[in-house]
Amino acid sequence: AITLEGFSVIIAQLLGLKIGLTYDDIHKCSCPSAMCIMNHEAVVSSGIKIFSNCSMRDYRYFVSTFEGQCLQNFSKLKPLYQNQSVCGNGILEPQEECDCDSEQECRFKNCCDYNTCKLKDSAKCGSGSCCTSKCEISVAGTPCRKSVDPECDFTEYCNGTSNNCIPDTYAMNGQLCRLGTAYCYNGRCQTTDNQCAKIFGKGAEGAPFACFEEVNSLRNSLGNCGFKNSQPLPCEQKDVLCGKLACVWPHNNTYKSDVRSAVYSSTQGHVCITIGSSVRSGGRDYAYVADGTVCGSQMYCINKTCKEVPLMGYNCNATTKCRGNGICNNLGNCHCLPGYRPPDCELQIGSPGGSIDDGNDHKSVTIFTKKGYNTHQNWLILSFYIVLPFFIIFTIMIMKRNEMRKSCNKESAEYER
């Protein structure tokens, strides 16, 4: 029989898996002076248990993504008790000046005491991506999070006041990408080509519709649109492009792996390949088509169902709000093209573009604004219309003079004869 403590560990592990945590690798993950909660042996172990450095890393990644936004909606109810801060978990908590993780993980040992979570000497910071090796906060405009997708994700910058990078910003879900053939979703241009290449390697591509129809019509564990009560859910005809991911393997040799089961099928001259087992990482199963993938005209997949894009919250018109000089981000603000300044993408020569949410220092750009540019343009137009009449008159006078000279020369020649 399982003990109450063991049952509690199981619940904690299930919740952890739900938010993107994975079971610990005992050779890579550690928990000082305690058993790790995500360790398989934790269920039968007694005593103190804490989350490992690996679990903390997985959790930080989860809360930085779209899936973790719901956790940012704090309840108005006051907590019945306040948990005590835990020094060394890499999370800055009350009563802590810094928290650079454990002794092994700490990158700011000259700035932060990893035992007490207090700043050393004159250090201004001791953790965070906007804290320098000299224990100072990075100047505004310093990149702190690189874009992971050239079309759908944006680079974030330090704002000059915080040691942490600002929240992640990306194109609003439903923004077109890849020359209008795909949609941005959670900061990625979602295509089956990219998803297949991630699983099977470079060269793998998304399969044609016939493969998806063949695979997701199986109505078993190899082809389905999810599970309910441990039973595979059959895909409706409109949802076959949103079930199991089907790919085309371009190489002559078969795909081999010791952790995934590749399933081959032949349909209408195509050799289709899909994954029979689950491939979970970061809170999602990569054996299925990713949310945001095109499944029809103005439609994309959401939770293994094909839905219309306008119904999914794409409520920002970049043509009017951003003057056609940018796109909307996930916060509903404009992310402007270079040469246009946020928040409304007004023309400003020399502006790096971006948004009011990316942390960049947009006030430092002091060149021509649209007003100044228009004034300069108006002067050019006015000068043109003033000079043009004089130029025309001068040209006519030259032409008349030349005609008179020719006439005089002709008369002189006739007189001499």
TrEMBL record:
Keywords: Disulfide bond, EGF-like domain, Membrane, Transmembrane, Transmembrane helix
Gene Ontology annotations for the cellular component aspect, listed alphabetically: plasma membrane
Record membrane topology: Single-pass membrane protein
Gene3D superfamilies: Collagenase (Catalytic Domain), Disintegrin domain
Family annotation (SUPFAM superfamilies): Blood coagulation inhibitor (disintegrin) (SSF57552), Metalloproteases ('zincins'), catalytic domain (SSF55486)
The EGF-like domain, residue ranges: 312-346
GO biological process, one term: male gonad development
Entry's localization field: Membrane
Keyword match DNA-binding: no
SMART domains found in the cross-reference section: ACR, DISIN
Pfam families: ADAM_CR, Disintegrin, Reprolysin
Disintegrin domain: residues covered: 84-173
Keyword Plastid: no
Origin: domain of life: Eukaryota
Protein name: Disintegrin domain-containing protein
